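User: Reviewer 2 asked us to show a designed sequence for the structure in our supplementary figure. I'm pasting the structure tokens here. Could you produce the per-position amino acids so we can include them in the response letter?
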């Protein structure tokens, strides 16, 4: 009998130690699995590492990503570059197949580039292996004094960030970018002739047409959409400025092909005051060259005052006769309505679970609670056996 008591006591002691320890380890494992950590890197590198870049030459730069231990769902990059040495050119930017959905931009300026890319709605497509975010095309404008840093990521104010899907199905997004992503450093030479030129010659862009979506006249308020078409023979167009003739110019720096050599950029405007206005569009390329004014990119808009509602004459108001008060008060009869024999049924969420299916909203936390409950029950049973024997 004494031996049985010691045996049962030992079993109880083991249960009291191992079950809380198991619950603790399960909780730690769940916390580790669901938390994404900063382990992802970004870098800039020549698309053709063996290429010798010369003045006036276009060359590709890959935006590379290494997810590390993360599952990347979204990447936003802002790249600053030396505008005295480089300019965006050619195709501008080409996203990789890993990030097919563009959520922001691309936005080009004379010294920066911004784009936000996503894997799309299917989170199972999260990027988990090293690869490319996309390819950016530059043109070399001037010589460098040896190898210099010419482009880098702007990481201030979340201008460059990487979001990851946590390994649990909660799919929480967290910024997982490691600091100091690798910049682009290279040397720009004079080319095969060996004769250095100060800067590659550039030509101004051309605005070929300014289209409108309706006739050029109407009543206030008169809303109209302009579309500026144009191209640049040796660079990219990074800004289109619209002057509607009734106020400050308005710029467009994204969409409609901006960042490439050919654009068709729409812009809507509303004229609120009558008058005759000269609307025109001006294109700017990556070298700050502006398109020359021409009649094809100018429209005359005529706006007249819209009809104003005229208040009608107020006719004499005919008073409505008031019926005399009755000496006999009107009797009000209230008829009670019997309540329905069957109360209304309120739809409720079913609490039962189909056979073979996990209960709703179940997760690792439920498993931990079950393990703790089992441990408590076993401890009680062991205590009863110990004192019963």
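Assistant: Here is a per-position design you can include in the supplement:
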């Amino acid at each position: 009998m004494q031996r049985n008591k010691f045996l049962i006591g030992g079993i109880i002691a083991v249960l009291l130690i191992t079950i809380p320890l198991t619950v603790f380890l399960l909780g730690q494992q769940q916390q580790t699995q669901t938390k994404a950590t900063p382990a992802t890197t970004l870098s800039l590198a020549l698309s053709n590492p063996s290429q010798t870049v010369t003045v006036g030459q276009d060359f590709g730069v890959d935006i590379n990503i290494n997810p590390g231990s993360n599952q990347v769902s979204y990447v936003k990059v802002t790249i600053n570059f030396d505008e005295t040495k480089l300019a965006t050119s050619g195709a501008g930017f080409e996203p990789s197949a890993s990030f097919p959905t563009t959520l922001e931009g691309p936005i080009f300026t004379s010294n920066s580039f911004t784009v936000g890319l996503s894997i799309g709605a299917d989170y199972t497509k999260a990027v988990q292996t090293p690869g490319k975010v996309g390819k950016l095309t530059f043109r070399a404008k001037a010589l460098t004094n040896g190898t210099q840093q010419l482009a880098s990521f702007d990481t201030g104010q979340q201008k460059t960030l990487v979001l990851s899907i946590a390994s649990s199905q909660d799919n929480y997004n967290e910024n997982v970018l490691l600091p100091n992503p690798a910049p682009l450093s290279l040397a720009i030479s004079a080319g095969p002739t060996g004769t250095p030129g100060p800067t590659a010659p550039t030509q101004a862009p051309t605005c070929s047409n300014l289209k409108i979506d309706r006739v050029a006249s109407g009543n206030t308020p008169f809303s109209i959409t302009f579309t500026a078409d144009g191209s640049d023979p040796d660079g990219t167009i990074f800004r289109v400025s619209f002057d509607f003739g009734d106020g400050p110019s308005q710029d467009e720096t994204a969409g409609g092909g901006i960042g490439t050599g050919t654009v068709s950029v729409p812009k809507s405007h509303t004229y609120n005051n009558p008058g005759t206005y000269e609307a025109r569009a001006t294109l700017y390329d990556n070298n700050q060259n502006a398109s020359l004014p021409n009649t094809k990119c100018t429209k005359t808009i005529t706006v007249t005052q819209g009809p104003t509602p005229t208040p009608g004459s107020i006719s004499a108001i005919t008073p409505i006769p008031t019926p005399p008060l009755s000496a006999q008060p009107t009797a009000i009869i209230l008829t009670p309505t019997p309540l329905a024999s069957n109360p209304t049924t309120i739809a409720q969420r079913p609490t039962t679970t189909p056979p073979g299916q996990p209960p709703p909203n179940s997760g690792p936390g439920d498993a931990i609670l079950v393990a703790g409950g089992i441990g408590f029950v076993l401890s009680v049973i062991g205590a009863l056996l110990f004192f019963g024997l």
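For the response letter, you might also mention the following. The first strand starts at residue 41 and ends at 46. Helices lie at 2-34, 364-388.
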